[in-house]
Amino acid sequence: MTQSIIRRRSLLGAGAALAATTLAGCAGMSSSPSIGRVVVVGGGYGGATAARYLKLWGGNVEVTLVERNADFVSCPISNLVLGGFKQMSDITRSYDGLKAVGVKVVRGEARAIDVAGKKLRLADGSDLPYDRLVLSPGIDFMTEQIGGLAAALDSGRVLHSWKAGPQTVELRKQIVDMRDGGVFALFIPKAPYRCPPGPYERACMVAAYLKTAKPKSKVLVLDGNAEITSKKGLFEKAFKDHYSGIIEYRPNAELKELSGNVAKLEFEDVRADVLNVIPPQRAGDLARSAGLLNMNNRWVGVDWLTMESTAAPNVHVLGDATFPAPAMPKSGHMANQQAKVAAAAIIQLLKGEAVNTTPVVMNTCYSFVTARDAMHVASVHQYDAKDKTFKAVPGSGGVSVAANQIEGRYALGWADNIWADTLAL
Amino acid sequence: MTTPLRRVAASTLLLGLAGLAQAQDANLARNLAATCANCHGTHGQARGDMKPLAGLSAEKIVAMLADYKSGAQPATIMHQISKGYTDEQLQLVAAFFAAQPAKK
Q1: Interface predicted TM-score of the whole assembly (ipTM), two decimals
Q2: DSSP state string for B14-52
Q3: Do A364 and B38 touch (CB under 8 A)?
Q4: Residues 7 to 66 of B: which have CB under 8 A from any A CB?
Q5: CA A302/CA A308 separation, integer angstroms
Q6: Domain parsing of chain B, residue ranges
Q7: Please, are residues B48 and B39 in contact by the beta-carbon 8 Å criterion?
């Protein structure tokens, strides 16, 4: 008898707890007090994941995401759009999932950070106060390093297409409009840059299209680096096996100046029908204007336990904008992983609790070499308390044995899952 | 196979996990499991062709990971990733996914 009363009471208690949970889960409408305000700038892989996981793990954290674009457009898989194997709709996702889990999504442009006053100023003049600010500003370009590049990009004649979106559509059009027998020249900056294997995947995707659509054409890969910077053996094999006579690869071919459709290298001039220049990169403009570029005047240094900037308190920086730990790539996958470290730490900090001292991040990056065959590089990074940085675990990680169709399916499966994880789809 | 992780899977898994869970940060398993979500879905609730982990028994997940780690089970990528985590971390990950509902 006594037992059954206790059981009934605990069941009632469980019912009440469930009801409370359901209310709390309803778009942040909980009646219990907020533990803090977090403003996130940038709705790419880093920022969107941070916003999502702050809500998932944080309960009553007020989260506002500031993003300039209406939709999320993925850089990973965007090279397949250039090859004509995917459409823009395949790589575009909405922010509705984040809104449904209680993130306030503000379409706008962040203009300045008041670090002392803990406020973010938007371009429309409004201020967003915060307890913690998360910046995932991505990369912007150091166009001043290449003569004529800024004007060529401004005119739209030369495209970078290194941020997926309208430039992806425009570059696809340039490729489709190119004459058979034309030259598509792809310029790769010196490392570090966003997505190390991305340029070589792009060469493969453009070549895959030209091989059947305009078979007399060439893809000229002019690499500012001394060699292929990621998955080298696998890309060399792909160039040889699939695109012999189409892709021509030249190392140590740094672009110095653009003039019309002539690209000047150190010792030669290159003429091409389509010039696709991936410019040298640094952390995004907002990080620069806020004075956060304390690493080589180019990247943001962070405390890897919290992702907090070493240049500004209460400002956490994610993704490609950060000065990386050893062997840590600038990838969307890594930005998503860093965002989870930041979200967990910010929640602990808002509660006045100790942060996790043993975080782990990992990276998986698939590259397509044909419309269906892909290959990967993977790594796992554990936090090293002595050196206060992430270190790749010896003996872990690596690359594919060979590109194949199974990994092609995994690559698309990866995309579906990371988009859902990042955007709460 | 008689790797340490495999032995854990075969015998004292649950006791071992309970001990670990008490010893560690309460969020550690959650945080570690979140590193898998990019391919295996949030909370292990995977989409499409990717392998779901939510709702599998912890013993089964530990056994799979042990076989990837030892090389007994050939893989495209998991043999490389599993080696990046300690056996204790993999046990925490397995326990976390085992406790998740299989599908949203």
Answers
A1: 0.90
A2: HHHHHHHHHHS-TTHHHHHHHTTHHHH-GGG---TTSPP
A3: yes
A4: 25, 27-28, 30-32, 34-35, 37-42, 46-50
A5: 5
A6: 4-98
A7: no
| Mean pLDDT value across residues B26-33 | 95
A359 in B contact zone (CB under 8 Å): yes
The C-alpha atoms of residue A337 and residue A56 are separated, in whole angstroms, by: 15
Select the residue of B34, B39, B83 nearest A364 (Cβ to Cβ): B39
Q: Do B84 and A360 touch (CB under 8 A)?
A: yes
Domains of chain A: 143-281 (3.50.50.60)
User: Closest approach of chain B CAs to the CA of A259, in angstroms?
Assistant: 43
d(CA A382, CA A341) in angstroms, rounded, equals 12
Give the strand order in the sheet containing A36-41. Answer: A104-107, A61-67, A36-41, A132-135, A315-317, A308-309, A302-303
pLDDT in tens, A159-212: 999 999 999 999 999 999 999 999 999 999 999 999 999 999 999 999 999 999
Q: What is the pLDDT of residues B35-62, one digit of tens each?
A: 999 999 999 999 998 999 999 999 999 9
CA distance B36 to chain A (A): 8
CATH number of B4-98: 1.10.760.10
Minimum Cα–Cα distance from A409: chain B residue:
B49
CB of A310 less than 8 A from some CB of B: no
CB atoms within 10 A of CB A411: 23
CA B29/CA B32 separation, integer angstroms? 5
Q: Give the integer Cα–Cα distance in Å for A417 and B45.
A: 9
A365 HSE (CA, 13 A, CB side): 27
In order of A233, A302, A389, B34, the CA distances from A360 in angstroms are 28, 15, 11, 10
Residues of chain A with Cβ-Cβ distance to B82 below 8 Å are 396
**Token pair of A338, please?**
């860093």
Return the SS3 of A367: strand
What are the structure tokens assigned to A27, written together? Answer: 């778009």
Which residues of chain A neighbour B41 with C-beta distances below 8 Å? 417, 420-421
| Chain B contact probe: residue of A346, A366, A380, A406 with most B CBs at under 10 A | A380
Name chain B contacts of A364, Cβ cutoff 8 Å.
38-39, 77, 81
What is the rounded distance in angstroms from the CA atom of residue B17 to the CA atom of residue A404? 38
- Facing B49 at nearest CB: one of A53, A409, A420: A409
A32 alpha carbon, distance to own chain's centre: 35
- Is A344 in the B-facing interface, judged by CB distances under 8 Å? yes
Q: Alpha-carbon distance A303 to A71, whole Å?
A: 30
